[in-house]
Description:
The protein has helices at 6-33, 44-66, 72-81, 89-110, 112-117, 133-136, 151-172, 185-200, 210-223, 233-256.
Amino acid sequence: MKKENLFGEFVAEVFGTFILILLGDGVVANVGLAPRLASVAYNWNTITIGWAMAVLVAVYTVAGVTGAHINPAVTFALAVKRGFPWRKVVPYWIAQVLGAFLGAFGVFLVYYGGLKAAGMPNVWCTGPGSVFGQAFWGSVSSATPQGSYTLWNAFLTEIFGTAALLWGVLASGDIKNNAVGANLGGFLVALTVLGIGLSLGGPSGYAINPARDLGPRIFGAIAGTKGLFDGSYWFVAPILGPLIGAVLGVLTYDWFVTPFLAKKEG
């Protein structure tokens, strides 16, 4: 049995979430700033594939230490329904937000020239003011903060998206179900994130991870990006929505799947 080492788990969650944001926000910056090709050469598919690969690398890097939560919503759901110790929840959350903040700093260093030339646009987090606000969420106004999508719409999208994430996470490791073998669980999780981005990403930008949004949002505000904490969007959709969605995801998995799985003999 692996000896418990909370400090090591803390470091792993910092590092894993750092990787997630370095590559995830990195693809957002790459597409938004389009440094190599005309902007039409990049599209939403580039974003979703980049984020899926970010998840894949992050998960395989630190899964052996913590299981690669790299997401406060996942940590919360596992504490609610899978026996994860509650005393570890806050340390994991702190590690995840810190890692996300540092990942955003890494993106800042890599893309500094382009970011500076563009006036430090929001490549950090979802919602109003994002670099894709005009293209994907419509013009921003106080009446409809997400353009054609309301805050309520974005909030519900985050709940559904994060529930779907938990379905993929739980199924990937459920030995009573059709769990993937040969250490391929990380691929299923990455493909789940890809599917969420392609199918449910429009209304909110699919944060599905409070740390992924909050850590870079804090860094972006420090770096000089304007309006990141205007209004209530920053809390309602990318923080509250995923926390609710993750719990809903683990509950629905146990309501609709777990009771009907065949008992393993042996």
